[in-house]
User: Which sequence fits this backbone?
């Protein structure tokens, strides 16, 4: 009995589990249905098509009194009474929490709406205001303890187990450019298990030890209230679930995402392969706020016993009690009642901030704040916890390093991993490895069947997804199920559009070769007159004869006036009115006699004038350069010669150069030729037709005077213009 007596005072020393499950995991964008437990808004716009939880559980150990190295527990020499590190306080505490999640599923019911259904069993034990100094006195049993006089205070213990079936709904509430808001709520159907509680009031304990059990006394003051939905503490009943205890609860939450790159996820620009970007985390910052476990379970006919502890017991009386029931019966002043009770859930506020630092690296900050009065009778509560979790996250893998601070155990460091369908982790494992006085230990693990949202494959990039493409490695149109249309004649016009699928032809003619309807060798596509034969030069059309004179327009100099073939399609004319028709007139613009083919005859007077003017053209001495001293006169002479020559368009003239006999004969010959050419060039420059001119040099061979006198030599240095013939029809 002496160890059973310690039940209410040392229960807190049992290492207990943290009140927040899956620490370090639930912030993962691939936490799936587990994320619903902390914020039901997480299920909408998730990275899953479906997430099916087969089994998962989360349990941890936490208190502020007893610390140890968990790895020392495996040693046979380890004694928990002597080993470990104790921190006895007048208000020690702890919390026990366990969570088992059964078959559960989340899925999308529309692009902006999601649903989750889950099953869950939970257990929690809260221990508050437990006097740790009393434990140090009683850890080896009351009979081994020395005398003590301790203020026990107001110890408070609550234990509760229950089951849940939850339905969560999430929806996108607002989306505008870089702002994205979603919300969710969960409705829970609750089935009670066991609910028990114990609370002391102004309790003290004074132990006077002697060598005689009859004189050794335990004097206590204050009161103790015990309650239980099943009488397994003071009665004979075994622990069992109460199918008549039911209740309802709920969670609700909001999540805001800041998406500065929202233009990159414009659905109007998405391709089929993008799958509307459902596989991507689009936020730079994410903020979440939720309240969970709002509700209660009604237990019927709960037994509650209130004991008055103002009494002194001897050691002999205590040793006579075989169990707690008999020990409590020693306190005769007790009151027992039976009544229905509504037991509230451990309501908590969760805040969450997630920062996508770089690509697949994230930093998460999470807070869990209890909204329950922990000093109240039969009030379950969660532990206030702050968690900072760096993580690396991909679709199939996540690694986390949660660093958390809890109100009982202080700071702990853990680690977590997710490999596709399996996840495992602990928020305290690293601390437990290195610390000899860890006051917490936890673990979570689970196995699920995830179906992720992902980009669709389009290997040949033809806009038809591989899963629907009959030719996934060869591009083709949607109309042909992703296969290219055949082109039998290889003319680049596919058979479905080819009017001549077995004969090559251009696309302009629907895959058929061009014909030649008028057989003029000009294909119909370039034949301006496809039904009338014509030459290639006229685009397949016959040449026209507008005036009907049998001279085709292309050869007719007068296409709109009937004329003679011999006159290039023009009628006979006499433009210069000299009686010689233009057809026979070699000089149609200048009148002349028929005997000279309509051209004027060069007169003797004209020749004499040419002779006078030519002899008055002067040169620089010894050179073929027109003289500059009398340039005005020389230019005038050349103008006069030009005016004479233009009157005879069909006459041929020769400019002849002469010298005196001074100097070398060969040099004089060359000089005479050069001077004759200089005159010809000057006349051509003034507009005389070069076809009407020739030149020749005679040197000193044709003197017109004696070279023995200066006067004679001057006369011999001359140029002359000679009529050498008439040009008829282009010939001299």
Assistant:
């Amino acid at each position: 009995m002496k160890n059973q007596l310690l039940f209410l005072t040392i229960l807190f020393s049992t290492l207990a589990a943290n009140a927040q499950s899956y620490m370090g995991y639930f912030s993962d964008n691939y936490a799936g249905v587990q994320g619903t437990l902390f914020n039901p808004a997480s299920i909408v716009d998730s990275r899953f098509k479906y997430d099916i939880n087969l089994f998962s559980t989360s349990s941890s150990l936490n208190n502020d009194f007893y610390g140890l190295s968990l790895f020392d527990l495996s040693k046979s020499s380890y004694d928990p009474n002597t080993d470990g590190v104790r921190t006895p306080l007048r208000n020690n505490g702890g919390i026990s929490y366990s969570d088992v999640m059964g078959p559960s599923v989340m899925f999308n019911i529309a692009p902006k709406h999601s649903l989750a259904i889950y099953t869950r069993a939970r257990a929690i034990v809260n221990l508050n205001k437990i006097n740790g100094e009393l434990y140090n006195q009683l850890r080896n049993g009351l009979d081994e303890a020395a005398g003590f006089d301790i203020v026990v205070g107001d110890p408070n213990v609550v234990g509760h187990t229950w089951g849940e079936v939850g339905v969560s709904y999430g929806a996108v509430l607002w989306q505008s450019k870089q702002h994205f808001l979603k919300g969710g709520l969960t409705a829970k159907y609750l089935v009670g298990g066991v609910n028990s509680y114990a609370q002391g009031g102004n309790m003290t304990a004074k132990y006077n030890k002697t060598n005689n059990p009859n004189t050794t006394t335990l004097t206590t003051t204050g009161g103790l209230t015990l309650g239980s939905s099943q009488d397994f503490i003071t009665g004979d009943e075994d622990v069992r679930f109460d199918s008549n205890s039911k209740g309802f609860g709920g969670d609700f939450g909001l999540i805001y995402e800041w998406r500065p790159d929202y233009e990159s996820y414009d659905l109007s620009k998405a391709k089929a392969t993008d799958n509307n970007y459902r596989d991507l985390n689009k936020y730079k910052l994410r903020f979440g706020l939720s309240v969970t476990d709002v509700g209660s379970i009604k237990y019927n006919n709960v037994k509650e016993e209130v004991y008055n502890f103002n009494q002194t017991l001897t050691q002999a009386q205590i040793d006579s009690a075989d169990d707690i029931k008999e020990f409590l019966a020693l306190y005769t002043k007790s009151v027992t009642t039976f009544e229905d009770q509504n037991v509230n859930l451990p309501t908590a506020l969760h805040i969450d901030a997630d920062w996508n630092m770089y690509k697949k690296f994230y930093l998460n900050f999470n807070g869990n704040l209890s909204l329950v009065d922990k000093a109240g009778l039969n009030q379950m509560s969660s532990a206030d916890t702050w968690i900072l979790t760096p993580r690396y996250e991909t679709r199939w893998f996540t690694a986390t390093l949660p660093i958390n601070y809890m109100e009982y155990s202080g700071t702990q460091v853990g680690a977590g991993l997710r490999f596709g369908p399996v996840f495992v982790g602990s928020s305290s494992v690293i601390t437990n490895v290195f610390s000899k006085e860890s006051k917490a230990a936890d673990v979570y693990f689970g196995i699920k069947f995830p179906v992720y949202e992902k980009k669709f494959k389009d290997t040949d990039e033809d806009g038809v997804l591989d899963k629907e493409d009959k030719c996934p490695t060869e591009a083709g149109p949607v109309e042909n199920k992703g296969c290219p249309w055949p082109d039998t004649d290889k003319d680049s016009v596919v058979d479905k559009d080819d009017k001549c699928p077995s004969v090559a032809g251009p696309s302009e003619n629907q895959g058929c070769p061009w014909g030649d309807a008028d057989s003029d060798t000009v294909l119909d596509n370039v034949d301006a007159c496809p039904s009338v034969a014509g030459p290639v030069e006229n685009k397949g059309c016959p040449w026209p004869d507008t005036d009907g004179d049998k001279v085709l327009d292309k050869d007719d100099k007068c296409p709109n006036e009937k004329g003679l073939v011999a006159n290039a399609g023009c009628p006979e004319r006499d433009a210069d009115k000299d009686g010689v028709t233009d057809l026979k007139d070699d000089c149609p613009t200048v009148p002349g006699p028929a005997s000279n083919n309509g051209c004027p005859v060069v007169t003797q007077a004209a020749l004499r004038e040419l002779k006078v003017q030519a002899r008055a053209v002067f040169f620089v001495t010894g050179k073929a350069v027109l003289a500059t001293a009398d340039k005005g006169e020389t230019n005038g002479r050349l103008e006069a010669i030009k005016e004479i020559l233009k009157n005879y368009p069909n006459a041929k003239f020769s400019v002849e150069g002469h010298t005196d006999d001074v100097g070398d004969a060969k040099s004089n010959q060359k000089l005479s030729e050069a001077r004759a050419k200089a005159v010809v060039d000057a006349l051509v420059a003034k507009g005389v037709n070069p076809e009407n001119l020739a030149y020749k040099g005679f040197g000193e061979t044709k003197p017109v005077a004696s070279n023995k006198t200066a006067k004679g030599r001057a006369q011999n240095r001359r140029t002359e213009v000679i009529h050498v013939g008439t040009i008829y029809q282009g010939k001299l």
Summary: The chain is about 10% helix and 35% strand. Confidence is low (pLDDT under 50) at residues 1-18. The longest helix spans residues 665-685. The longest strand covers residues 179-208.
